[in-house]
Fold this sequence. Notes:
Layout: E1 3-10, E2 14-16, H1 26-36, E3 41-44, H2 45-50, E4 60-63, E5 74-77, H3 79-85, E6 91-95, H4 97-103, E7 109-115, E8 123-124, E9 133-143, E10 146-155
Parallel strand pairs: 1-6, 1-7, 3-4, 3-6, 4-5
Antiparallel strand pairs: 2-8, 7-10, 9-10
Amino acid sequence: MTINLIWAKSHNNVIGKNGVLPWHFSKDFNYFKTTTMGHPVVMGRKTADSLPQNLKGRRNIVLTRREGYDREGFEVMDIDDVLELEMTEDIFIIGGKEIYDTFLPYADYLFITVIFADYDGDTYSPNYVIKDFKLKNIIHEVEDGIGISFLNLERIRNY
């Protein structure tokens, strides 16, 4: 099965500010929901804590070093458990930055929303090597006068 990383970034590579997205675009939220629905989503504790509740219709998995983390609708796993889960299911890594960086070497696909505007932030997009991926699909939209592109990149495997 596959490991998929999904994130939204601004034109200046911001993905977060103070633990939340610095924008609100319904097209981006709908894309995220549609793309991840029915699949396990893997996140760090801070990302989980930023959500008002678990993401419905998805298995919510939290990676944390914090002992005894317990929140209804979320389950705690370690990296090895997630990699084992990937053997039987397509999984989506949904943040934060440290979790993206951890799973980027394993990523089969990247689902990147590009918001064509600059935002202030304190967290930036994962650094991936573009030549390691090929563009599988792209969709262009506009919301509130701002361009939004949904990119799906597939890792190039040289077997």
